[in-house]
Amino acid sequence: MAKHFIAFIVILGIYNPTYAQTSSISGVINSYVKVVNLGSGSCIDTIFVTSTVGFSVNDSVMIIQMQGALINTSNTASFGSIISYNDAGNYEFGCIKSIGSNFFVLKSYLKRTYTPSGALQLVRIPVYNNVNVNGILTSSPWNGNTGGVLAFFASGTVTLNADINVSGSGFKGGLGVNGNFDCGKMDYFYPLGSLHGGRKGEGITAAINSQALGRGALANGGGGGNNNNAGGGGGSNNTLGGKGGEQVIYGT
Questions:
Q1: Which of 32, 47, 3, 27 is CA-nearest to residue 175?
Q2: DSSP helix/strand/coil, 126
Q3: CA 166, CA 233: separation in Å to the nearest integer?
Q4: Residue ranges of the alpha helices (H) in the chain?
Q5: Which residue did the predictor score with more confidence, 37 or 241?
Q6: What is the helix (H) or strand (E) element at residue 130, kind and residue range?
Q7: Terminus-to-terminus CA distance in the chain, angstroms?
Q8: How far is residue 217 CA from its own chain's centroid?
């Protein structure tokens, strides 16, 4: 009943840094913080966060909305189809002008719209000239609020002496459920704690507890397989995830 969906971003950009040396990098190079609100008005340059630790003035940053899409929640084959993206997937880069106790002010206004309740995060982006990847380069794992993003800017040469590997660091696949056999469980969702279906995979809409299990795909996250012995659906990078399987009954 398990399904797997991995969402991650690796970005190599071009920038005009003040550094001239060659840097060696490995492990996690980004810092992450949850965005709780944005400044008001039509020209927004202020970002309110849960913590400013790990960020400094003149840091390059990415603001990115991970979730927030509105889906069809009917108990039909249309469950999980996307009605509105609600800014999910929007992102852009900026530079920190100043830092307050719980907010950042950027040097330029945001160009796109964002919904803080849709798992909006700010990511510090390191800037290099020439860079050598000398150990496995990865991201902090997605935890429902932050992570799952690996990004850096390089204006010179990027040399890969080791892998860039973010496997398993993005949206998580759903877990299977072990329970007693039951017939006729054909719904597209079941509540958390039910034994009638595996958990849906994560995607650009957040699961709600009353619809966390079952074969209906959760936007681009795969659906969970229904009781009994059915497999989950695969996640998608761009379209609707695969539906989980209907129950499998063995007979003689």
A1: 3
A2: coil
A3: 21
A4: none
A5: 37
A6: strand 130-138
A7: 24
A8: 16
Helix (H, G, I), strand (E, B) or coil at 48: strand
Beta bridge partners of 160: 133
| Among the listed residues 6, 1, 2, the one whose alpha carbon sits nearest the alpha carbon of residue 168 | 6
Counted residue by residue, the chain has a size of 252
Tokens matching residue 165: 């590997």
pTM equals: 0.85
Q: Write down the pLDDT at residue 217.
A: 86
Backbone angles phi, psi at 172, to 5 degrees: -90, 145
Of the listed ranges 57-66, 141-150, 192-201, the one predicted with least confidence: 192-201
CA distance to 139, 197, 211, 249, per residue, from 183 (Å) = 42, 12, 20, 8
User: 92 pairs with which residues across the strands?
Assistant: 63
CA 88 → CA 51, 70, 127, distances in Å?
Answer: 23, 9, 26
CA–CA dist 224, 233 (Å, integer): 6
- Eight-class DSSP state of 199: B
Query: Tell me: the pLDDT tens digits for 121-134?
Result: 999 999 999 999 99
Q: Which DSSP letter does residue 206 get?
A: -
Q: Which two tokens stand for residue 121?
A: 């995060």
For the chain, the C-alpha Rg in angstroms (whole number) is 21
- For 74, the token pair is 């009917």
Given the structure tokens 């040399």, which residue do they identify?
Answer: 159
8-state DSSP, 210: G
